[in-house]
Amino acid sequence: GSTLFPYTTLFRSWEETRKIGKLGEAKLIEYFNKTKTKHIELNFNAPCDSCSDPEDWRKFNKLPDGILREKNDLYFFDAKAKKSRKFIINYRDFEEYSKIQKFLKIDVRIYFLLFDYKEKLKEIFQSNIKVNEVNLSTAWDGNKVIDLSNNLTQLY
Predict the structure, then answer these.
(1) What CA–CA distances, in Å, run from 16 to 62, 84, 133, 137?
(2) Per-residue model confidence as pLDDT tens digits over 121-132
(3) Residues 6+ apart with CB under 8 A from 129
(4) Best CA proximity match to 114, nearest among 87, 74, 77, 147
(5) Residue 154 forms beta bridges with which residues?
(6) pLDDT > 80? residue 48
């Protein structure tokens, strides 16, 4: 049989994807504020954050969205907004996060924010990247991705 891709995967433009990504970042900060999680947003914009072509964007290193503190521990964090229960990140991002972990000895937490089709927040999951537990595969668009679904904690 043939495989049909979900409508949102086939027809979502790069700009729409970035828009939902920004919404995810904002909702994560709201969550941190509500739960009194100490955090600092890095808001580092790569030279091409305003580019509309993903090929241009891939030229620059990926940095996490911010730093958070729990008790005496520091973590980098990055928000990943999704409209489906696919807890994957680009391998390219994983490589950058792994460099940060090895160099600075600070773990990176990925927060998956799941939205419905009206862009209402439904759920938040946290995943700690474990460099030695990589489940690498290829996404529908040919990008190498890592599945973090085996390493999740639901927060909301």
Answers:
(1) 19, 15, 31, 24
(2) 999 999 987 666
(3) 94, 97, 98, 101, 107, 108, 109, 110, 148
(4) 87
(5) 125
(6) no
